[in-house]
Specification:
The complex is a heterodimer of chains A (about 140) and B (about 300).
Chain A: H1 2-10, E1 13-18, H2 24-31, E2 45-46, E3 55-59, H3 64-76, E4 82-86, H4 87-92, E5 114-116, H5 123-139
Parallel strand pairs in A: 1-2, 1-3, 3-4, 4-5
Chain B: H1 2-32, H2 42-51, H3 63-89, H4 97-104, H5 107-118, H6 122-153, H7 158-163, H8 174-190, H9 202-205, H10 216-240, H11 250-270, H12 277-300
Classes of the chains: A alpha/beta (about 140), B mainly alpha (about 300).
Protein backbone atom coordinates (compact mmCIF):
# COMPACT_ATOMS: atom_id res chain seq x y z
CA UNK A 1 0.00 0.00 0.00
CA UNK A 2 2.68 2.47 0.97
CA UNK A 3 4.72 1.97 -2.24
CA UNK A 4 1.55 2.50 -4.29
CA UNK A 5 0.78 5.80 -2.57
CA UNK A 6 4.40 6.94 -2.61
CA UNK A 7 4.60 6.45 -6.37
CA UNK A 8 1.21 8.15 -6.72
CA UNK A 9 2.47 11.20 -4.87
CA UNK A 10 5.49 11.34 -7.17
CA UNK A 11 3.37 11.36 -10.33
CA UNK A 12 -0.15 12.61 -9.68
CA UNK A 13 -1.89 12.90 -13.03
CA UNK A 14 -4.70 15.40 -12.72
CA UNK A 15 -8.09 15.42 -14.38
CA UNK A 16 -9.88 18.72 -14.55
CA UNK A 17 -13.61 18.63 -13.85
CA UNK A 18 -15.86 21.67 -13.91
CA UNK A 19 -19.25 21.34 -12.20
CA UNK A 20 -20.78 24.54 -13.47
CA UNK A 21 -18.09 27.04 -12.58
CA UNK A 22 -17.78 30.50 -14.09
CA UNK A 23 -14.52 29.38 -15.82
CA UNK A 24 -12.21 31.54 -13.73
CA UNK A 25 -10.93 28.65 -11.61
CA UNK A 26 -10.43 26.59 -14.78
CA UNK A 27 -8.31 29.30 -16.37
CA UNK A 28 -6.20 29.62 -13.22
CA UNK A 29 -5.79 25.81 -13.14
CA UNK A 30 -4.54 25.80 -16.71
CA UNK A 31 -2.09 28.57 -15.76
CA UNK A 32 -0.25 26.05 -13.58
CA UNK A 33 0.80 24.16 -16.72
CA UNK A 34 2.42 27.18 -18.34
CA UNK A 35 6.23 27.59 -18.38
CA UNK A 36 6.09 30.14 -15.55
CA UNK A 37 4.73 27.66 -13.00
CA UNK A 38 5.52 24.30 -14.71
CA UNK A 39 3.91 21.69 -12.45
CA UNK A 40 5.54 18.92 -14.52
CA UNK A 41 8.49 19.52 -12.15
CA UNK A 42 6.47 17.56 -9.59
CA UNK A 43 5.46 14.91 -12.14
CA UNK A 44 1.94 16.30 -12.57
CA UNK A 45 0.39 15.95 -16.00
CA UNK A 46 -3.02 17.06 -17.21
CA UNK A 47 -4.72 13.98 -18.69
CA UNK A 48 -7.74 13.97 -20.96
CA UNK A 49 -9.24 10.62 -19.96
CA UNK A 50 -10.76 9.98 -16.53
CA UNK A 51 -9.34 6.44 -16.64
CA UNK A 52 -5.77 7.79 -16.50
CA UNK A 53 -6.40 10.21 -13.63
CA UNK A 54 -5.13 10.08 -10.04
CA UNK A 55 -6.32 13.46 -8.81
CA UNK A 56 -9.68 15.05 -9.56
CA UNK A 57 -9.57 18.84 -9.63
CA UNK A 58 -13.18 19.88 -9.09
CA UNK A 59 -14.24 23.47 -9.61
CA UNK A 60 -17.72 24.97 -9.58
CA UNK A 61 -20.77 24.90 -7.37
CA UNK A 62 -22.16 21.40 -8.18
CA UNK A 63 -25.44 22.32 -9.82
CA UNK A 64 -28.24 19.80 -10.32
CA UNK A 65 -27.24 18.93 -13.89
CA UNK A 66 -23.56 18.29 -13.28
CA UNK A 67 -23.85 16.42 -9.97
CA UNK A 68 -25.06 13.24 -11.71
CA UNK A 69 -22.16 13.40 -14.18
CA UNK A 70 -19.70 14.04 -11.37
CA UNK A 71 -20.89 10.99 -9.44
CA UNK A 72 -20.50 8.84 -12.57
CA UNK A 73 -17.01 10.17 -13.20
CA UNK A 74 -15.99 9.63 -9.58
CA UNK A 75 -17.04 5.98 -9.89
CA UNK A 76 -14.89 5.61 -13.02
CA UNK A 77 -11.61 6.89 -11.52
CA UNK A 78 -9.25 3.99 -10.84
CA UNK A 79 -8.67 3.91 -7.08
CA UNK A 80 -6.66 5.09 -5.14
CA UNK A 81 -7.56 8.63 -6.13
CA UNK A 82 -7.58 12.05 -4.46
CA UNK A 83 -10.03 14.92 -4.80
CA UNK A 84 -9.14 18.61 -4.68
CA UNK A 85 -11.82 21.29 -4.46
CA UNK A 86 -10.63 24.42 -6.26
CA UNK A 87 -12.24 27.77 -5.54
CA UNK A 88 -14.83 29.03 -3.13
CA UNK A 89 -17.73 27.53 -5.08
CA UNK A 90 -16.41 23.99 -4.82
CA UNK A 91 -15.39 24.53 -1.21
CA UNK A 92 -18.55 26.04 0.23
CA UNK A 93 -20.81 27.04 -2.70
CA UNK A 94 -19.81 30.68 -2.08
CA UNK A 95 -22.43 33.19 -3.17
CA UNK A 96 -24.61 30.35 -4.50
CA UNK A 97 -25.24 29.03 -0.98
CA UNK A 98 -28.96 29.85 -1.10
CA UNK A 99 -29.44 29.11 -4.79
CA UNK A 100 -32.21 26.69 -5.82
CA UNK A 101 -29.79 25.10 -8.27
CA UNK A 102 -26.96 24.17 -5.89
CA UNK A 103 -28.63 22.06 -3.18
CA UNK A 104 -25.65 20.12 -1.78
CA UNK A 105 -22.01 21.18 -1.31
CA UNK A 106 -19.28 19.13 -2.97
CA UNK A 107 -17.90 17.48 0.18
CA UNK A 108 -21.34 16.05 1.05
CA UNK A 109 -21.30 14.17 -2.30
CA UNK A 110 -17.73 12.86 -2.67
CA UNK A 111 -14.86 12.81 -0.14
CA UNK A 112 -12.62 15.88 -0.58
CA UNK A 113 -8.95 15.78 0.45
CA UNK A 114 -7.92 19.41 0.06
CA UNK A 115 -9.79 22.72 -0.26
CA UNK A 116 -8.15 25.62 -2.09
CA UNK A 117 -10.12 28.81 -1.30
CA UNK A 118 -10.15 31.90 -3.47
CA UNK A 119 -12.36 33.39 -6.13
CA UNK A 120 -10.44 32.42 -8.18
CA UNK A 121 -7.35 31.05 -6.35
CA UNK A 122 -4.02 32.17 -7.81
CA UNK A 123 -1.86 29.55 -9.50
CA UNK A 124 0.57 29.91 -6.56
CA UNK A 125 -2.29 29.02 -4.21
CA UNK A 126 -3.17 25.97 -6.30
CA UNK A 127 0.45 24.78 -6.26
CA UNK A 128 0.61 25.39 -2.48
CA UNK A 129 -2.58 23.33 -2.13
CA UNK A 130 -1.07 20.51 -4.19
CA UNK A 131 2.05 20.55 -1.98
CA UNK A 132 -0.16 20.42 1.13
CA UNK A 133 -2.06 17.49 -0.32
CA UNK A 134 1.21 15.63 -0.96
CA UNK A 135 2.42 16.41 2.59
CA UNK A 136 -0.91 15.36 4.12
CA UNK A 137 -1.13 12.03 2.33
CA UNK A 138 2.62 11.47 2.73
CA UNK A 139 2.42 11.90 6.51
CA UNK A 140 -0.17 9.11 6.79
CA UNK A 141 2.20 6.54 5.25
CA UNK B 1 20.26 -19.25 -22.69
CA UNK B 2 17.51 -17.86 -24.91
CA UNK B 3 15.60 -17.10 -21.73
CA UNK B 4 18.51 -15.06 -20.36
CA UNK B 5 18.75 -13.12 -23.61
CA UNK B 6 15.02 -12.40 -23.55
CA UNK B 7 14.90 -11.40 -19.89
CA UNK B 8 18.20 -9.57 -19.38
CA UNK B 9 18.72 -7.89 -22.75
CA UNK B 10 15.30 -8.00 -24.40
CA UNK B 11 13.37 -6.82 -21.36
CA UNK B 12 15.56 -5.35 -18.60
CA UNK B 13 18.19 -3.49 -20.61
CA UNK B 14 15.66 -2.27 -23.18
CA UNK B 15 13.24 -1.11 -20.49
CA UNK B 16 15.92 0.82 -18.56
CA UNK B 17 17.32 2.46 -21.68
CA UNK B 18 13.79 3.12 -22.92
CA UNK B 19 12.83 4.87 -19.67
CA UNK B 20 16.01 6.98 -19.87
CA UNK B 21 15.16 7.84 -23.49
CA UNK B 22 11.66 8.85 -22.46
CA UNK B 23 13.15 11.13 -19.77
CA UNK B 24 15.49 12.70 -22.37
CA UNK B 25 12.44 13.30 -24.57
CA UNK B 26 10.44 14.96 -21.79
CA UNK B 27 13.38 17.02 -20.57
CA UNK B 28 14.25 18.29 -24.06
CA UNK B 29 10.57 19.10 -24.62
CA UNK B 30 10.53 21.06 -21.37
CA UNK B 31 13.70 22.98 -22.26
CA UNK B 32 12.30 23.81 -25.71
CA UNK B 33 9.27 25.33 -23.96
CA UNK B 34 11.46 27.20 -21.39
CA UNK B 35 10.35 24.91 -18.57
CA UNK B 36 12.40 22.98 -16.01
CA UNK B 37 10.97 19.55 -16.75
CA UNK B 38 10.47 16.38 -14.72
CA UNK B 39 13.10 14.76 -12.45
CA UNK B 40 15.26 11.89 -13.75
CA UNK B 41 13.25 9.08 -12.16
CA UNK B 42 9.88 10.42 -13.35
CA UNK B 43 9.18 7.69 -16.00
CA UNK B 44 9.88 5.02 -13.34
CA UNK B 45 7.47 6.68 -10.88
CA UNK B 46 4.81 6.79 -13.59
CA UNK B 47 5.13 3.08 -14.39
CA UNK B 48 5.21 2.01 -10.71
CA UNK B 49 2.21 4.18 -9.93
CA UNK B 50 0.18 2.82 -12.84
CA UNK B 51 1.03 -0.78 -11.85
CA UNK B 52 -0.53 -0.11 -8.43
CA UNK B 53 -3.79 1.34 -9.72
CA UNK B 54 -7.13 -0.35 -10.16
CA UNK B 55 -8.04 -1.87 -13.54
CA UNK B 56 -11.39 -0.66 -14.81
CA UNK B 57 -12.88 -2.81 -17.55
CA UNK B 58 -15.53 -0.92 -19.52
CA UNK B 59 -19.01 -2.48 -19.64
CA UNK B 60 -19.58 -4.46 -22.81
CA UNK B 61 -15.91 -4.59 -23.78
CA UNK B 62 -14.33 -7.77 -25.07
CA UNK B 63 -12.66 -8.64 -21.79
CA UNK B 64 -9.94 -11.12 -22.82
CA UNK B 65 -8.83 -9.16 -25.89
CA UNK B 66 -8.86 -5.94 -23.86
CA UNK B 67 -6.56 -7.41 -21.21
CA UNK B 68 -4.27 -9.38 -23.53
CA UNK B 69 -3.58 -6.63 -26.10
CA UNK B 70 -0.86 -4.83 -24.05
CA UNK B 71 0.86 -8.16 -23.37
CA UNK B 72 0.97 -8.96 -27.09
CA UNK B 73 2.47 -5.55 -27.80
CA UNK B 74 5.18 -5.72 -25.17
CA UNK B 75 6.14 -9.29 -26.17
CA UNK B 76 6.63 -8.07 -29.74
CA UNK B 77 8.96 -5.31 -28.56
CA UNK B 78 10.87 -7.70 -26.28
CA UNK B 79 11.34 -10.17 -29.15
CA UNK B 80 12.62 -7.59 -31.61
CA UNK B 81 14.89 -5.95 -29.01
CA UNK B 82 16.37 -9.37 -28.18
CA UNK B 83 17.05 -9.90 -31.88
CA UNK B 84 18.95 -6.60 -32.10
CA UNK B 85 20.93 -7.16 -28.88
CA UNK B 86 21.92 -10.69 -29.91
CA UNK B 87 23.12 -9.42 -33.28
CA UNK B 88 24.93 -6.54 -31.62
CA UNK B 89 26.70 -8.30 -28.75
CA UNK B 90 26.92 -12.02 -29.49
CA UNK B 91 27.02 -12.28 -33.31
CA UNK B 92 23.91 -14.45 -33.06
CA UNK B 93 21.32 -13.82 -35.72
CA UNK B 94 20.33 -15.94 -38.70
CA UNK B 95 19.78 -15.45 -42.42
CA UNK B 96 16.75 -13.25 -42.91
CA UNK B 97 16.50 -11.73 -39.42
CA UNK B 98 16.07 -8.32 -41.08
CA UNK B 99 12.68 -9.53 -42.39
CA UNK B 100 11.73 -10.87 -38.95
CA UNK B 101 12.64 -7.52 -37.38
CA UNK B 102 10.43 -5.62 -39.86
CA UNK B 103 7.51 -7.95 -39.06
CA UNK B 104 8.00 -7.79 -35.29
CA UNK B 105 8.18 -3.99 -35.35
CA UNK B 106 4.60 -3.94 -36.67
CA UNK B 107 3.25 -5.89 -33.66
CA UNK B 108 3.06 -2.93 -31.20
CA UNK B 109 0.85 -1.00 -33.63
CA UNK B 110 -1.31 -4.10 -34.09
CA UNK B 111 -1.70 -4.49 -30.33
CA UNK B 112 -2.80 -0.85 -30.01
CA UNK B 113 -5.37 -1.39 -32.78
CA UNK B 114 -6.57 -4.57 -31.04
CA UNK B 115 -6.86 -2.88 -27.66
CA UNK B 116 -8.63 0.12 -29.16
CA UNK B 117 -11.30 -1.91 -30.92
CA UNK B 118 -11.76 -4.19 -27.90
CA UNK B 119 -12.50 -1.36 -25.47
CA UNK B 120 -15.94 -0.43 -26.89
CA UNK B 121 -15.42 3.29 -26.89
CA UNK B 122 -16.12 5.49 -29.92
CA UNK B 123 -12.95 7.54 -29.39
CA UNK B 124 -10.87 4.36 -29.07
CA UNK B 125 -12.38 2.91 -32.25
CA UNK B 126 -11.69 6.16 -34.09
CA UNK B 127 -8.11 6.15 -32.87
CA UNK B 128 -7.63 2.50 -33.80
CA UNK B 129 -8.93 3.04 -37.32
CA UNK B 130 -6.60 6.05 -37.73
CA UNK B 131 -3.69 3.95 -36.44
CA UNK B 132 -4.53 1.34 -39.07
CA UNK B 133 -4.41 3.93 -41.86
CA UNK B 134 -1.15 5.31 -40.48
CA UNK B 135 0.41 1.81 -40.47
CA UNK B 136 -0.57 1.36 -44.12
CA UNK B 137 0.92 4.79 -44.87
CA UNK B 138 4.34 4.49 -43.25
CA UNK B 139 5.19 0.81 -43.78
CA UNK B 140 6.05 1.15 -47.50
CA UNK B 141 8.63 3.98 -47.22
CA UNK B 142 10.00 2.45 -44.00
CA UNK B 143 10.68 -0.91 -45.66
CA UNK B 144 12.18 0.81 -48.72
CA UNK B 145 14.46 2.90 -46.50
CA UNK B 146 15.48 -0.13 -44.45
CA UNK B 147 16.25 -1.93 -47.73
CA UNK B 148 19.09 0.48 -48.59
CA UNK B 149 21.61 -0.97 -46.05
CA UNK B 150 20.64 -4.48 -47.21
CA UNK B 151 21.53 -3.57 -50.81
CA UNK B 152 24.74 -1.79 -49.75
CA UNK B 153 25.99 -4.71 -47.66
CA UNK B 154 24.68 -7.47 -50.02
CA UNK B 155 23.22 -9.33 -47.05
CA UNK B 156 19.90 -9.74 -45.29
CA UNK B 157 21.53 -10.58 -41.93
CA UNK B 158 21.69 -7.77 -39.37
CA UNK B 159 25.07 -9.05 -38.13
CA UNK B 160 26.60 -8.73 -41.61
CA UNK B 161 25.04 -5.27 -42.01
CA UNK B 162 26.80 -4.21 -38.77
CA UNK B 163 30.13 -5.79 -39.73
CA UNK B 164 30.22 -4.36 -43.26
CA UNK B 165 30.05 -0.83 -41.78
CA UNK B 166 33.36 -1.23 -39.92
CA UNK B 167 35.16 0.69 -42.70
CA UNK B 168 32.57 3.44 -43.17
CA UNK B 169 28.99 3.85 -42.05
CA UNK B 170 26.14 3.83 -44.59
CA UNK B 171 25.00 7.24 -43.32
CA UNK B 172 28.08 8.56 -45.12
CA UNK B 173 26.71 7.61 -48.57
CA UNK B 174 24.20 9.70 -50.51
CA UNK B 175 21.73 6.81 -50.55
CA UNK B 176 22.27 6.28 -46.84
CA UNK B 177 21.51 9.90 -45.96
CA UNK B 178 18.32 9.93 -48.05
CA UNK B 179 17.17 6.65 -46.51
CA UNK B 180 18.01 7.91 -43.01
CA UNK B 181 15.82 11.01 -43.46
CA UNK B 182 12.90 8.85 -44.61
CA UNK B 183 13.48 6.35 -41.82
CA UNK B 184 13.54 9.02 -39.08
CA UNK B 185 10.21 10.44 -40.27
CA UNK B 186 8.75 6.91 -40.39
CA UNK B 187 10.01 6.29 -36.84
CA UNK B 188 8.22 9.48 -35.85
CA UNK B 189 4.99 7.97 -37.17
CA UNK B 190 5.72 4.52 -35.69
CA UNK B 191 6.10 6.11 -32.25
CA UNK B 192 2.92 8.17 -32.85
CA UNK B 193 4.63 11.46 -31.98
CA UNK B 194 3.60 14.90 -33.25
CA UNK B 195 3.23 15.65 -36.26
CA UNK B 196 2.01 12.07 -36.78
CA UNK B 197 0.24 11.56 -33.44
CA UNK B 198 -3.05 11.38 -35.32
CA UNK B 199 -4.16 8.08 -33.69
CA UNK B 200 -3.84 9.40 -30.14
CA UNK B 201 -4.34 13.13 -30.67
CA UNK B 202 -4.72 14.08 -27.03
CA UNK B 203 -6.49 17.38 -27.58
CA UNK B 204 -8.88 15.85 -30.08
CA UNK B 205 -9.74 12.24 -29.22
CA UNK B 206 -8.13 12.01 -25.72
CA UNK B 207 -5.29 9.47 -26.24
CA UNK B 208 -7.31 7.48 -28.80
CA UNK B 209 -6.99 3.68 -28.54
CA UNK B 210 -5.74 3.68 -24.93
CA UNK B 211 -8.48 5.98 -23.62
CA UNK B 212 -10.18 3.16 -21.66
CA UNK B 213 -6.99 1.62 -20.27
CA UNK B 214 -6.16 2.13 -16.61
CA UNK B 215 -3.77 0.61 -14.09
CA UNK B 216 -1.46 -2.23 -15.19
CA UNK B 217 -2.79 -2.28 -18.79
CA UNK B 218 -1.90 1.37 -19.24
CA UNK B 219 1.44 0.80 -17.50
CA UNK B 220 2.34 -1.96 -19.96
CA UNK B 221 1.30 0.21 -22.92
CA UNK B 222 3.41 3.11 -21.60
CA UNK B 223 6.37 0.79 -21.00
CA UNK B 224 5.92 -0.64 -24.51
CA UNK B 225 6.01 2.88 -25.96
CA UNK B 226 9.14 3.73 -23.97
CA UNK B 227 10.87 0.49 -25.02
CA UNK B 228 9.94 1.18 -28.63
CA UNK B 229 11.44 4.64 -28.23
CA UNK B 230 14.75 2.91 -27.54
CA UNK B 231 14.36 0.03 -29.99
CA UNK B 232 13.59 2.06 -33.11
CA UNK B 233 16.59 4.44 -32.83
CA UNK B 234 18.66 1.30 -32.05
CA UNK B 235 17.41 -0.24 -35.33
CA UNK B 236 18.36 2.95 -37.19
CA UNK B 237 21.82 2.82 -35.63
CA UNK B 238 22.27 -0.79 -36.69
CA UNK B 239 21.15 0.02 -40.24
CA UNK B 240 22.95 3.31 -40.81
CA UNK B 241 25.63 3.83 -38.13
CA UNK B 242 27.14 0.34 -37.74
CA UNK B 243 25.37 -0.50 -34.50
CA UNK B 244 26.53 0.41 -31.01
CA UNK B 245 30.33 0.41 -31.00
CA UNK B 246 31.35 -0.33 -27.42
CA UNK B 247 35.15 -0.34 -27.59
CA UNK B 248 37.22 2.47 -26.09
CA UNK B 249 36.47 6.04 -27.14
CA UNK B 250 33.80 4.81 -29.59
CA UNK B 251 31.38 4.52 -26.64
CA UNK B 252 31.19 8.31 -26.47
CA UNK B 253 30.61 8.49 -30.21
CA UNK B 254 27.82 5.89 -29.93
CA UNK B 255 26.10 7.79 -27.11
CA UNK B 256 26.36 10.99 -29.11
CA UNK B 257 24.81 9.39 -32.19
CA UNK B 258 22.02 7.84 -30.15
CA UNK B 259 21.15 11.02 -28.21
CA UNK B 260 21.40 12.93 -31.50
CA UNK B 261 18.77 10.74 -33.17
CA UNK B 262 16.48 11.01 -30.12
CA UNK B 263 16.98 14.79 -29.98
CA UNK B 264 16.13 15.14 -33.69
CA UNK B 265 12.92 13.15 -33.15
CA UNK B 266 12.05 15.29 -30.10
CA UNK B 267 12.75 18.59 -31.84
CA UNK B 268 10.62 17.55 -34.83
CA UNK B 269 7.86 16.68 -32.36
CA UNK B 270 8.10 20.05 -30.63
CA UNK B 271 8.21 22.30 -33.67
CA UNK B 272 5.37 20.91 -35.76
CA UNK B 273 1.58 20.95 -35.58
CA UNK B 274 -0.43 17.76 -36.00
CA UNK B 275 -1.39 16.87 -39.58
CA UNK B 276 -4.64 15.27 -40.69
CA UNK B 277 -4.71 11.56 -41.56
CA UNK B 278 -5.16 12.21 -45.29
CA UNK B 279 -2.21 14.62 -45.27
CA UNK B 280 -0.09 12.00 -43.50
CA UNK B 281 -0.98 9.29 -46.03
CA UNK B 282 -0.29 11.66 -48.93
CA UNK B 283 3.03 12.67 -47.33
CA UNK B 284 4.23 9.09 -46.88
CA UNK B 285 3.01 7.70 -50.19
CA UNK B 286 4.14 10.75 -52.16
CA UNK B 287 7.45 12.49 -51.34
CA UNK B 288 8.69 9.94 -48.78
CA UNK B 289 8.21 6.92 -51.04
CA UNK B 290 9.79 8.81 -53.94
CA UNK B 291 12.86 9.72 -51.87
CA UNK B 292 13.11 6.13 -50.63
CA UNK B 293 12.92 4.78 -54.20
CA UNK B 294 15.65 7.23 -55.30
CA UNK B 295 17.79 6.03 -52.38
CA UNK B 296 17.24 2.40 -53.38
CA UNK B 297 18.21 3.13 -57.01
CA UNK B 298 21.35 5.02 -55.85
CA UNK B 299 22.24 2.12 -53.57
CA UNK B 300 21.81 -0.37 -56.43
CA UNK B 301 24.34 1.72 -58.40
CA UNK B 302 26.77 1.59 -55.50
CA UNK B 303 26.48 5.22 -54.37
Amino acid sequence: MSLKLKALLKSPWVFHLSTGSCNNCDIETLDCLTPRFDIERFGMLLVGSIKHADVLLVSGSCNRMSVERMKELFEQVPKPCLVVAIGTCAGSRGIFKDSYNCPVPLDKIIPVDVYIPGCPPKPEAIIAGAVKLIEKVGSTL
Amino acid sequence: MTFVYLLVFGFAATAILGLITSWIDRKVTARVQYRVGPPFLQPVYDIVKLLGKETVIPAGASKITFLIAPVIGISGVIAVATLFWVNQLFAGGFVGDWIVAIYLLAIPSLSIILGGFASRNPLASLGASREMKLVIAYELPFILAALVPVISSHSIRLGVIIDSQAGGVFAGNISGILALIVAILCVQAKLALVPFDIPEAETEIVEGPIVEYSGPGLAIFKLMKNMLFFTLPFFLMILFFGGLRLNGINILWTILEYVGIVAIITVIRNTNPRVRIDQAVRFFWGPMTLIAIVAVILALNGL
